[in-house]
Amino acid sequence: MVGLFFFIRASTKDRTEQVKLMTKESVDHLLSQLQTYFTQRAYHISSVDPQHQTITFEGFVSPSWFLAIFLSALAAIGLFCLSFVLSLLYPSLSGFFFGLIVLCPVAGLFYWKKSGRVEKVLLEVKSLSDSNQLQPNDIEPQNFIIVTAHRDELAQLQQADFLN
């Protein structure tokens, strides 16, 4: 039950990570592509800092029906097992213990209320030629993007074709 409790609680944990992506695209072209990409993924621009070349996108991430039902089912199984063991130890209270199973939807409700939130994506574009990290053998200057976002969003971004 302790493991199940922490598993349900971890389902709403913030999983923000940071990744650096290399590209040979120009900064302006790269920013327009990223803006189009995140707009298609239901994000909107919340702030722009041209001096530091950063853009912040925001978008509402809705909770998953499947995960809410799955967590409720796991809670039902866990509460049933706990009720069964307690009813063997205290047979006179078995009706009360099995009544605890009606609490299983609380797990899905907890997930649903905590996981539906506004997610932020922070983009920072830097040029290697600006930071004097250009190698002597490099013909074209490269740019890199520092993206801070949810790890699932980062995985989708890395699979996008325009970063190759």
Rg of Cα set: 24 Å
- Describe the strand arrangement of the main beta sheet, using strand numbers: 1-5-4-3-2
Strand percentage lies at 25-35%
- What is the class of the largest domain in the CATH system? Alpha Beta
Helix/strand order:
HEHEEHHHEEH
Task: Tell me about the largest β-sheet.
Answer: 5 strands, antiparallel
Percent of residues in helices:
40-55%
- The stretches of 5 or more residues where confidence is low (pLDDT under 50) are none
* CATH architecture descriptor text of the largest domain: 2-Layer Sandwich
Number of helices: 6
Number of extended strands = 5
First and last CA, distance: 46 Å
Could you say what the CATH topology of the largest domain is called? TATA-Binding Protein
User: If you average the pLDDT, what whole number results?
Assistant: 81
Shape: rod-shaped
Number of domains: 2
Structural class: alpha+beta
What would your notes on this structure say?
With about 160 residues, the protein is an alpha+beta fold. It folds into two domains: about 15-60 and about 115-164, 2-Layer Sandwich (TATA-Binding Protein); about 65-110. It contains six helices and five strands, in the order αβαββαααββα. A five-stranded antiparallel beta sheet has the order 1-5-4-3-2.
Keywords:
TATA-Binding Protein; five-stranded antiparallel sheet; alpha+beta; 164 residues; single chain
Give me a quick take on this structure:
This protein is α+β, with helices and mostly antiparallel strands and 164 residues long. The chain has helices at residues 2-10, 27-40, 65-89, 94-99, 105-115, 151-158; strands at residues 16-23, 44-49, 54-61, 117-127, 143-150.
